[in-house]
Amino acid sequence: MKLDSNLVKKYNIPVPRYTSYPTVPYWDNQKPKESQWLDVVKHTFDESNDREGISLYIHLPFCESLCTYCGCTTRITKNHRIEQGYICAVLSEWKQYLKVFENKPIIRELHLGGGTPTFFSPKSLRTLVSGLLEHCEIHPEREFGFEGHPNNTTKEHLQVLYDLGFRRVSYGIQDLDLKVQQTINRVQPYENVERATVDARAVGYESINFDLIYGLPHQTATSVADTIQQIAKLSPDRIAYYSYAHVPWIKRGQRSYSCADLPANAEKQQLYDLGKSLLTNLGYVDIGMDHFALKNDELYKAKNNGKLHRNFMGYTTSQSSLLIGLGTSAISDAKYGYMQNSKKVEEYKEVVLDAQLAIFKGHILTEEDLNIRAVIKDITCLGKADLHQIMNHDLWHQIEGRLLKMKLDGLIKIDDDHLEVTTLGKSLVRNIANAFDVKYHGSFTMRDNLFSKAI
């Protein structure tokens, strides 16, 4: 079922992607003391069990060139001499966390993100990952993955990380049309994507993900169809089909093209509908919020078994309560609180090499926050939620009105204290989650400057 033009116009508003609640702009913005944050981490670690394990996210911000569509925290440089110093900083930061754990941490999930992790040499990545795992145990159901650029991910990169326990690789494809690639400054021929995929399978990787984006400058239905037709030959296990976030007031690189170059509202929705239809016909299942997977992939199995989880890394099969983010701008989630590192590489390095945490800002969750977060997580992961805890709060009268409108529009069903997302509503899960976001709706902040549009 597709959204009609009226619903597209009504719901194509700036809303968060809900990898957390509260979302980062609505944290209390008080810089927590290091001791306070580490107490939260220790409490969450002590509460967790061995079966759960913990998650690690490592932010590697360096890229040799700027992809103008990108909204991540990056540092553009061709100077590879910076690799060793940055690795030393990340390992120094990790040591500060290891001090608070009474037992050896069991690593369930490890993800290298960026930036471009394969900016780092295979030798540097071996040093980094070996250092991280040196004083840890590995969960028997580990999920180790990394983001690779098809242009520079070598077979040596793949082999080194495979030997360290990695079994999943994600390649940023975006669109294979040359005009689109030139506009976003990310030219990568199909042959490079094919080589990187074939090499990964030859080494033994069990899950390969492709990132695609709809709504890019000069993108058309033809380019989307051609891109999906080409990648179908490679049969990636997962595909993330993201909406392009045009935020030129935040990312200056996006000022190299204008809104006139972008497909707008109904046209952009048509690109999504086309991509979803093509992917579904190829056997991919809609996991939710832009993600698709084949039925042999663990992400599909987690969705099917009701064990899908969502955190700052997006959808994951790991149910870990403790996610520690290492590296500049990385975000940690310790169940009862969030913390983000300094966004400036030099500041981050200086602080952590002095045996401190480079805390930029954080948020300690209230009981209300925890209840709303639980509902939003269930909506985004399960497509349904128990509203019992929310209904007992005074804030329910604010939320109820927004839900009633969505019910009338056919996006949700509500039976007593149970909510279920309809087939029509799947395309607007961000909006449905947003109905519960009392901080968003209670703020006078200019949301257009904070979030990308839902469609």
Folded structure, characterized:
The protein has 455 residues and is an alpha/beta fold. It has two domains: 348 residues, pyruvate-formate lyase- activating enzyme; 83 residues, Arc Repressor Mutant, subunit A. Helix content is 36%, strand content 21%. A hairpin with a 3-residue loop joins strand 14 and strand 15. Helix 3 crosses helix 11. The radius of gyration is 21 Å and the shape is globular.
Question: Keywords for this structure?
Answer:
3-stranded antiparallel sheet, globular, pyruvate-formate lyase- activating enzyme, 36% helix, 455 residues, 21% strand, 19 strands
Proper CATH architecture of the largest domain:
Alpha-Beta Horseshoe
Overall number of domains: 2
Structural class: alpha/beta
Widest sheet, order of strands? 9-10-8-7-6-5-4-1-13
Number of strands: 19
CATH class of the largest domain: Alpha Beta
The fraction of residues in strands falls at 15-25%
Categorize the overall geometry. globular
End-to-end CA span: 16 Å
Question: Which SSEs are present, and which pair or pack?
Answer:
Blueprint: H1 5-11, H2 34-47, E1 54-60, E2 62-63, E3 75-76, H3 82-98, E4 106-114, H4 122-133, E5 137-148, H5 155-163, E6 168-174, H6 178-183, H7 190-203, E7 207-214, H8 221-232, E8 238-243, H9 265-281, E9 285-288, E10 291-293, H10 298-304, E11 309-311, E12 314-316, E13 323-326, E14 331-333, E15 337-341, H11 345-352, E16 359-364, H12 367-382, E17 384-386, H13 388-391, H14 396-408, E18 412-415, E19 418-421, H15 429-434, H16 438-441
Parallel strand pairs: 1-4, 1-13, 2-3, 4-5, 5-6, 6-7, 7-8
Antiparallel strand pairs: 8-10, 9-10, 11-12, 14-15, 15-16, 17-19, 18-19
